[in-house]
Amino acid sequence: MQALKELTSMRVGGVPASITVCSTREQLIEKAQEIWSTGEDWIALGGGTNLVFAEDVSNLHVLQIKTSGIEKTKLDGKQVWKIQAGVGWDELVAESVAAGLAGIEGMSGIPGTCGAAPVQNIGAYGQELSDVFLRAEFLDYESGELVILEPRDLKFGYRDSAIKRGRTGIITWIELELIDLEGLSRPLYSGQIAGALNSEMGKHVSLKDVRDSVLKLRAAKGMVLDPQDPNSVSCGSFFTNPIVSDSFARTISDEAPKWESQEDDGLTVKLSAAWLIEQAGIGKGFSLPGSNAAISSKHALAIVNKGGATGEQIAELARYIQERVAAKFGINLVPEPNLIGFSV
Hints:
Layout: E1 18-22, H1 25-38, E2 42-45, E3 51-53, E4 61-65, E5 70-75, E6 78-84, H2 89-98, E7 101-102, E8 123-124, E9 127-128, E10 133-140, E11 146-149, H3 151-154, E12 169-180, H4 191-196, H5 207-220, E13 234-237, E14 243-245, H6 246-249, E15 258-260, E16 268-271, H7 273-279, E17 293-295, E18 302-305, H8 311-329, E19 338-340
Parallel strand pairs: 1-4, 2-4, 3-19
Antiparallel strand pairs: 5-6, 6-12, 7-12, 8-9, 10-11, 10-12, 13-18, 14-16, 15-16, 17-18
């Protein structure tokens, strides 16, 4: 049986009790209910890009989601796409851009599968899944029933949802609403993308140009999976950008990158976790003595496996980063990946 390090982008994790590959929605539902009936530990595995496993996972049963298919319904100026959970997220973005549909172009290059996307409300460069999300089919662990979850049920937040906060189960498909703007993007809400395209915030530009620009920016940070780039052996951003009160933010240096929080209430501010990490004395490429886990040489927010690292070494470095940032700024950085078999 494969070790989980062979199925995850961080390349850590031991051999589980079982791995069941589910290639259809019906098979996924059937196998999940079978495992749940035993009361044993389990996890759903999509792209494996947001998971850090311990070496000892011998009691864990893995449901590997390999479902595929997209159903498309045309409406006036819009399309509703129903996407099976196992479809790759960037595969979906590429298809939407090719179809001339706007809504998710700014989230190009995000690894993982569509079924995992609502769990942490993925987002980048001014767009979030919640902007286009309509509903999802969810196999509820507590009841064993299939239910439809709408945005109000998922209670989306910044890299957060009701599922991430403890509603246990498996998403089988999601529905998104995409907009036909005749090949143009949604209004730009990322200064980085606007600058890269010599445009302005709020302007519409070519969908292809936005996707190409996002992929270029992500690759420069090691945030696009690439077998030739050792900095992509990671989970991408390891910590979420902390949201603090506006009064607290004013105690941080004016040089610190700061943005309005999602609520945009004027009372809270989002800070750059990467900036906090570097200002706490942890630079790009940093590694603890004797460890094969390191900070990416391209981006301070990513922890990478230099080769042969264990999940415990990844977690050890993450804890060290948290301690240094907390000591200097009084801020607790929250991990973005799911940590299986240990805690940070």
